[in-house]
Structures are given as structure tokens and as C-alpha cells.
Q: What sequence folds into this?
């Protein structure tokens, strides 16, 4: 069981919008920034969003992030077949420790 | 270009040991925290350990405490993970990741994310 809860799968048609939720608690999401990662099969994860809603250089603005209370959301607009991947949210647990980092269980995105 | 390349994975019997290495290039390695993250076959990501820039602070997930040791050699731009007393459940792809941890007043973690990942190295614990 992951500390952060994500839906196992989501799907939408090309060109549509999809959102992926990530639910946590006050010890993690509620008081810390959330980041999101994209992973294609057999490859390493890639940073998509950091500090809740910031995009690294090179990430298209079709990808967005938001946070409210103890939940965070990744949004993807203008879906493309190339967006089919696993998506993970993550944050650290307990502000005074540089250790514990928690990931969500991951969400498989299918573009129908 | 930031690059991380892991090595050292392989097949090891339960109870055995293995040392993973990660060589960094394209950035000033000694300026960053570094982490190991693993992914069991068909499963999600799990953070394993991290180490401060100068090696003075190390943190581990509970399941590997006392068995794994993270270390670094800034002169060689290298990160290591010594894995002892390996178990079947340690079977995973192990990724080296640059940990963008920033602390503020009183040691509170202000922000953190992982912005660079290596391709990973597979560790298989099997008899």
C-alpha cells in the first residue's frame, strides 16, 4: 500500500483532457510540495512537474499541476498517443527529516 | 548535459551482497544531495536512500536500514549503494537520482524533487 493514493488507471481519447489525482495526508502533501513523474515502459522516470505546478524546461504546457489541501492533481490537455505512460506523484514525509520520500502507486494512462 | 549512469547490478543469492555505482557528469556533483530509488518488476517506485552533499547525512527507508549503506566520492563524481543481506524482495531496478532537496531555517525541508535519473541497473535476488 502506497502512502499516496492514485487511481490505477485513467483513459481518454486523443485531443481530450485527463486528470490524475494524488491523495495524501497532512504529514506529506498537506504541508509539502508535490512533484510528478512520467515513465514509459522499460525506461527511467522523468520529471514533469515540481513544486506543485512548475514545469522543467522542455516540458510542454499541456502538462499542469495543482494542489489543494492534502490532494494534488496532474492535468494533461490535448492528449496524444505518445502520452501513454505511467505517472507517479511524490513528496516528502515530515518536514524536519531529509529522508522519507513517498511516491504514489502510479497511474497508467491509456489514450484510446 | 546532466547524465547519471548506474552499474553493478546482477544476480545474487539471498543473503549475498552487491555494490551499485552511479557516475555523474554534466553538473557539479558535490553540490547536490543524491538518492537511490528502486522499482520492483511490475511495481511502482520506492525511494531507498539519500545522502547529503558532503556525505555527513544519510537516510534510508525502513526496509533497508542496517542492510544497505549509501556513500559517495565527490572526487570521482560517484554515488554508491552497498547492499548486504539481500532478500528476494530487494529484486528491482535501482535508479540513481539527483535529489533537489533544499533546507531552510531550523533544518526544515523547504523543497525537494528528483530532476535527473539514470537508466537504472537490475538487481535480482534469487536462489
A:
Amino acid at each position: 500500500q502506497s502512502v499516496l493514493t492514485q487511481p490505477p488507471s485513467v483513459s481518454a481519447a486523443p485531443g481530450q483532457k485527463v486528470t490524475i489525482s494524488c491523495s495524501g495526508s497532512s504529514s506529506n502533501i498537506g504541508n509539502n510540495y508535490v512533484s510528478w513523474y512520467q515513465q514509459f515502459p522499460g525506461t527511467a522516470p522523468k520529471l514533469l512537474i515540481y513544486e506543485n505546478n512548475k514545469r522543467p524546461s522542455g516540458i510542454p504546457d499541456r502538462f499542469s499541476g495543482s494542489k489543494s489541501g492534502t490532494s494534488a492533481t496532474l492535468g494533461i490537455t490535448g492528449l496524444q498517443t505518445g502520452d501513454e505512460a505511467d505517472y507517479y506523484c511524490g513528496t516528502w514525509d515530515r518536514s524536519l527529516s531529509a529522508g522519507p520520500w513517498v511516491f504514489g502507486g502510479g497511474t497508467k494512462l491509456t489514450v484510446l | 548535459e546532466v547524465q547519471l549512469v548506474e552499474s553493478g547490478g546482477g544476480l545474487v543469492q539471498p543473503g549475498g551482497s552487491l555494490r551499485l555505482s552511479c557516475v555523474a557528469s554534466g553538473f557539479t556533483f558535490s553540490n547536490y544531495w543524491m538518492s537511490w530509488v528502486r522499482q520492483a518488476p511490475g511495481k511502482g517506485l520506492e525511494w531507498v536512500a539519500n545522502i547529503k552533499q558532503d556525505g555527513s547525512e544519510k537516510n534510508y527507508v525502513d526496509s533497508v536500514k542496517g542492510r544497505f549503506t549509501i556513500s559517495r566520492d565527490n572526487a570521482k563524481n560517484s554515488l554508491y549503494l552497498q547492499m548486504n543481506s539481500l532478500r528476494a524482495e530487494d529484486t528491482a531496478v535501482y535508479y540513481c537520482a539527483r535529489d533537489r532537496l533544499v533546507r531552510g531555517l531550523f533544518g526544515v525541508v523547504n523543497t525537494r524533487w528528483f530532476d535527473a535519473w539514470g537508466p537504472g541497473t537490475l538487481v535480482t535476488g534469487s536462489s
Summary: The mean pLDDT of chain B is 95.
